[in-house]
Write a structure and sequence with these properties.
By secondary structure, this protein is an alpha/beta fold. It has two domains: 233 residues, Aspartate Aminotransferase, domain 2, CATH 3.40.640; 136 residues, Alpha-Beta Complex (Aspartate Aminotransferase, domain 1), CATH 3.90.1150. It contains eleven helices and 13 strands. A four-stranded mixed sheet has the order 1-9-8-5, sandwiched between helices. The relative contact order is 0.16. The chain starts with 12 loop residues before the first helix and ends in an 8-residue tail after the last helix. The structure holds pyridoxal-5'-phosphate.
Length: 387
């Protein structure tokens, strides 16, 4: 039986939020008193602050990261007959935005080291029907966005960055969401900038694109009751914006805490020689990337991943598998008949990836406990990797 006091959660949002409780309550009370629940001043301010933080000229709030992606494709007039390049090793929303508009996702395999889209495999996926590329900055680390944008530019294709997990991340010191034509962010509570409900934002350096995104997010209505295009209703509400403004102030410190935790995992899992080095692979940090560690993703080879995860659960240590089923193997996407032989690394990642607890208020002793339980699993002779 797990000792309750030794339990380590995968995530403890309450503990992360607790130090800022008074700030949240004050900000929320101000919204209650203002009565401006939509389009309140906090929304405008948050858009400015996220734009500044991401070093772009424009930011447009919306209801979720999923909507941000959908609106980006709507603003680009993507529809039936169009193809959009996207990784299969991602969250559903990176792909559903494409199919929802009647367009076709074309899956490109990932790099085995970073789990991000393999840029070298993008050219063979480009056809005359290709209308956009959606790289995903998975787990808080940018894909090779410089090379992706270069390639896209050569083919005259817009890049939409799925930066849902990567606010504050950067590549060659340039922020996630500032490289492509449109950057998409999520404020889902588990993201690095997480609200107390749903929320999202789109960034663009191009004012006309930002204006179109805003038009589509507001029923395509401009002026009032005159509809130029068929948009959707997707708003970031003032309550969320008020909470997010408080959290944005503390985001750099939270990222620093996540980085320290990642560094400590790296040290503990290697130096102390507690864990069989052939059995697990630590996350690769691309030297050009500023990683914001939304997730700490290890690989567990040799079919031991699920057993290790069960062992962790049995001893009260939370873990998760992001993601167990790649998009091309989802029931709803079987009709796409994706070529699995081109998605070998994607499928291998889904079989091997294991995400360990990482959140700003995770303590060193909790991390020690995680390592202890991992080491304990591999100490069992039956779980050792054959030499
Ligand atoms: C969370 C996430 C989304 C969707 O964001 P929501 O705000 O939950 O709609 C999209 N893409 C990726 C990679 C995500 O992790």
């Amino acid at each position: 039986m797990a000792d309750q006091n030794n339990n380590v959660p995968l995530l403890d949002i309450n503990r992360d939020n607790l130090p800022h409780r008074d700030e949240f309550v004050e900000a929320l009370a101000a919204v209650v008193d203002s009565g401006r629940f939509l389009f309140g001043p906090d929304v405008v301010e948050l858009e400015r602050e996220v734009a500044a933080y991401s070093e772009v000229d424009n930011a447009v709030g919306c209801a979720s990261g999923s909507d941000a992606l959908l609106l980006a494709l709507m603003a680009l007039n993507i529809g039936p007959g169009d193809e959009v390049i996207v990784p299969s090793f991602t969250f559903f929303a990176s792909v559903s935005c494409i199919t929802r508009l009647g367009a076709t996702p074309v899956f490109v395999d990932i790099r085995p080291d970073t789990f991000n889209i393999d840029v070298d495999k993008i050219p063979e996926a480009i056809t005359e029907k290709t209308k956009a590329i959606i790289p995903v900055h998975l787990f808080g680390q940018c894909a090779e966005i410089d090379r992706i944008c270069q390639l896209a530019c050569e083919h005259d294709l817009p890049v939409i960055e799925d930066a849902a997990q990567a606010i504050g991340a950067a590549y060659h010191s340039r922020p996630a969401g500032s490289w492509g034509l449109i950057g998409c962010f999520s404020f889902y509570p588990t993201k690095n900038l997480g609200g107390m409900g749903d929320g999202g934002m789109m960034t663009s350096c191009d004012a006309a694109t930002a204006d179109r995104l805003r038009l589509f997010a507001g029923h395509g209505m401009r002026p009032r009751y005159y509809h130029q295009v068929v948009g959707i209703n997707s708003r970031l509400d003032t309550f969320q914006a008020a909470v997010l403004r408080v959290k944005l102030k503390h985001l750099p410190a939270a990222v620093e805490a996540r980085s320290s935790i990642a560094e400590r995992y790296g040290r503990m899992l290697t130096e102390e020689n507690l864990v069989d080095q052939d059995a697990i692979t630590l996350p690769t940090h691309d030297a050009n990337a500023f990683h914001v560690w939304n997730q700490y993703a290890i690989r567990v080879a040799g079919g031991r991943r699920d057993a290790l995860r069960a062992h962790l659960a049995e001893h009260g240590v939370g873990s998760e598998i992001y993601y167990p089923v790649p998009m091309h193997q989802q029931e709803c996407f079987t009709y796409l008949q994706a070529d699995r032989t081109r998605l070998v690394e994607t499928e291998r990642a889904s079989e091997e990836v294991l995400n360990l607890p990482i959140f700003p208020s995770l303590t060193e002793s909790e991390q020690c406990r995680v390592i202890e339980v991992v080491a304990d699993y591999f100490a069992n002779a039956a779980n050792k990797v054959a030499a």
